Amino acid sequence: MTLRELRSRQFWRAMLAELLGSLVFVSAVLGSSVPGSGEAPPGPLYPALAAGMVAVALGHCFGEISGAQVNPAVTLSLLATRKLDLLRALVYVGAQCLGASLGAGALYLALPLKSTAECFVSKVPMELNAAQALGMEVLSTFQLVFTVFSVEDQRRRENVEPGNLAIGFSVSAGVLMAGRFSGGSMNPARSLGPAIITGFWENHWVYWIGPVLGAVLAAWSHEFFFAPGASRQKLVACLTCKDIEMVETASVSRSSLSTVTQTAMRAKQTNKQEHN
């Protein structure tokens, strides 16, 4: 990123989009977690529905501005695959954490009983250990980020907009899958905001290492093994900090040449059959 880009209006619009998006996302998820008067804390269903629906909405609101990442794990997975430069990634992560903290703070101030704020916190259940919760965070975040990369790849190739709903479903699925084991955070900023507001930091590392590890594994799996343009050369280029775009261009060129050759062969066979 150049100094000119850093000063541009587009860059700061993207930063504010990540801040506001994270604030809205965390507010929606935490608000759906608050029990009613005299009620037990709700299970993962309400947070799962809220997270999925607000993810779809934010994709439409901020997708064209910043990508509507609103998740440090997603941002760091883009950095790990060199789709995002280091400075922009750091600014985005800072904005996401600030937005999440503001959202958690706003919900905390709105609570009639401050003791119910404990339902905001991402924490390991007493019957499980941190390693088990870590594994569920890795798994749930893996499926989320793999979906994100698959949707973005399809958008680039087909120039369509089918994917916000798929991402929303993936968010909801992740919360439902891991909700009773780890809280189904999948988002370090979502866990950081309530931790700052409530002062509860026990096993907080689980909600950074798990989502980031799952996100990076998903990004590498998609980009270097499952994507149509995946290749060993692309993986080597990423690991050695070479220009990935040149490798992708060469891969697309070979793919296009192969398609043209196959089309020509089919046309030749058709002409031969017509003559016969």
TrEMBL record:
PROSITE patterns: MIP
Keyword Membrane: yes
InterPro entries for the chain: Aquaporin-like, Aquaporin_transptr, MIP, MIP_CS
Any one GO MF annotation of this record: water channel activity
Keyword Electron transport: no
Keywords from the named record: Membrane, Signal, Transmembrane, Transmembrane helix, Transport
Topological type in the membrane: Multi-pass membrane protein
TM spans (from-to): 48-68, 89-111, 131-151, 163-185, 205-226
Domain of life: Eukaryota
Pfam families: MIP
Any one GO cellular component localisation term in the record: plasma membrane
Name of this protein: Aquaporin 14
Organism: Osmerus mordax
